[in-house]
Amino acid sequence: MSKKRIAVIFGGASSEHEVSRLSSAYIINSIDKEKFDVVTIGITKDGRWFLTNAPTDKIANGEWENDTNNKKAFISPAPTVGGLVVLNSDGHSEVIKLDVVFPVLHGKNGEDGTVQGLLELSKIPYVGCGVAASACCMDKVFTNIMLRDSGIDEADFTWFYTYEYKRSPEKCIEQVENALAYPIFVKPANAGSSVGVNKAKNREQLINAIEIAIKEDSKILFEENIIGKEVECAVFGNEDIFASIPGEIAPAKEFYDYEAKYQSASSELYIPAKISDELIEKVRETAKKSYHLFGCAGLTRVDFFVTEDGRVLLNELNTLPGFTSISMYPKLMANCGKEGKQLIAELIDLALNKNMA
Predict the structure, then answer these.
(1) Positive or negative CA dihedral for 244, 125, 133, 184?
(2) Mean pLDDT of the chain
(3) Rounded to whole angstroms, how far apart are CA atoms 8 and 128?
(4) How far apart are CA 258 and CA 256, in angstroms?
(5) Which of 231, 250, 319, 322 is the most exposed place for a label (fewest CB within 10 A)?
């Protein structure tokens, strides 16, 4: 049997571009080369697509962009093409047929349903959640509204559009202060893994946090401060859903921000989480319920707060979680017996078996 050709897309026009490179290096190294042929597609921060043969260390550190052998390329939305269109220097093009795409793109322009929409049009199977699930889980306001209406416990919240704040900042600030007590978490709705997130302990800090958040997105979310353990659960599957034993994070900083997630090795990870067996099962069941609610597929990391009085509050769902050396999703799956090479192979199988719209 001929080997399946897997395209790994990395980088992207996103604030999480650098993390995507690290995740893709892990995933490329974990793909079983005896079973799969690998094609690597890099996207620069300004949105240019290239077919590259750069080694994974050059992908991880960003030096791949300087490779003189890179070729301009793009995935055609036409299903009759079914692959990557490569533009050669002589002006001619060629098509590389693709069996599966692994979009290792975190944050905007990748994890938010945009690339998934392109792949749906192309009819090329891909790893991970579909358009709607990706978009809804990426948007923290949509996530909170759906969780509230489904009865899944979460932090109290309010939100507004950035244009509303620019028109009437005092009215918006009063809205937040009437809904929530300090300290308050301020989050761009669509910026990804804790980018632009700040904790405001008074009005002055709230205003500063809003000014930072509005640079990242057109919608701003405000949440009550929850005191509890930060617990994460890896969910895997399409129709048949598996939830891992949860892990716990002791952040290196006051809260688990972008730096603590991806740039600091001093955050402590505990697997299993230091909570009761009963709460572990509650986390797992809630993770599966939310996965089903949003229509997730392939993989998602579901993040929770677990309080001393036994509340399990869902914080967010990450449809393409980090796959770096310090990332929780691959660590949780390895703890369940799915090490890197097996995990990636099974995610590719899930993509091939997923029903595309």
Answers:
(1) positive
(2) 94
(3) 12
(4) 7
(5) 250
